[in-house]
Amino acid sequence: MPDGLAPTVLTPAVADARCDPGLPPAGPRTGRPHPVAALVDRIGDLFVPLGFDLVQLPLLESVRDNFDVLGYPPDHPTRTRLSLLPAPDVVLRTHATSGGPRAMRAAAPGPLRALLVGTCFRNELSSPYSGSQFTQIDGLVVQPDVGLPELMGLFDRLVSGLFGPGHPWRVRRGGYPFAAPGFAVEVACPRCGPGCDECEGRGHVEIGAGGLLRAQVLTAGGYDPHRVTGLSFGCSVERLLRLSHGLTDIRELLVNDMRLLEQFEHAYLPVGPSEKGVDRP
């Protein structure tokens, strides 16, 4: 025992108590954001300096904006089998892209840069890789003189900001009713190893999608497609968390288990000075 320190004498009441007096007091615990909310803020830190407004979407959306305006045909599976319709012409949002038409109508004919954040629902069984409820972020740019180079720059900012500068990524053509051309964004599998069950040995895994908005989507949003171009890109926040933190079951994020949530403390790190900028895509 260090010099000058005498052993603590316990009173009979303390000695008989069923507790360890050496432990810190139980007291209130300091709260912090849920990992999903924290990652939304992280992505916001990446794009707000580029002029994007962070927009929280409501849970309900009109069938028109959720499907019709975006070009989903009447027999599309998302529309016929995977959607939840609580009232006539109203749907529980199936994707954050459906917030785009509303945002465009509010901003037209001026330029628009928005980061749409919404809870989405699918009428399907949950699995370790996907959930019936998830959070999606959809970036939207509508202005003159932008195109594929600017879209690729936005993809790169997303990947570099979440997986680190220089993390390999690529795009492949994808079919989306609201975009032409459309692209799926894939990154080098962050969990890859022998017998990797994440990418099934392919070495890359999809994290999101995007493309150039079709003319009819711009027109429905109040824009002249001959004067402006629309860029759209989206991703699932829970999927990004699972990939970047090695979470084996995406459903754990809805359980609210403190033993799990406390492991995500490093997800709250803000964007460093070198990552922020005032450049425009």
Describe the structure.
The protein has 281 residues and is an alpha+beta fold. The chain has a domain of 186 residues: BirA Bifunctional Protein, domain 2 (2-Layer Sandwich). It is 25% helix and 24% strand. It has nine helices and nine strands. It has a seven-stranded mixed sheet with strand order 1-4-5-9-8-7-6. Strand 6 and strand 7 form a beta hairpin. The chain is globular and about 85 Å long. The chain starts with 11 loop residues before the first helix and ends in a 20-residue tail after the last helix.
H/E series: HHEEHHEHEEHEEEHEHH
From the spread of the alpha carbons, the general shape counts as globular
CATH topology of the domain at 35-167 and 210-262: BirA Bifunctional Protein, domain 2
Q: How many runs of DSSP E, i.e. beta strands?
A: 9
The low-confidence parts are: 267-281
Organism: Streptomyces miharaensis
Keywords: Aminoacyl-tRNA synthetase, ATP-binding, Ligase, Nucleotide-binding, Protein biosynthesis
InterPro entries: aa-tRNA-synth_II (IPR006195), aa-tRNA-synth_II/BPL/LPL (IPR045864), Phenylalanyl-tRNA_Synthase (IPR002319)
Pfam families: tRNA-synt_2d
Any key phrases for this structure?
281 residues; alpha+beta; BirA Bifunctional Protein, domain 2; seven-stranded mixed β-sheet; two-stranded antiparallel sheet
Short description:
With 281 residues, this protein is of the alpha+beta class. The chain has helices at residues 12-16, 35-47, 63-68, 77-80, 100-107, 148-163, 215-220, 237-245, 258-261, and strands at 53-56, 60-62, 90-92, 112-121, 133-143, 169-176, 179-188, 204-213, 229-236.
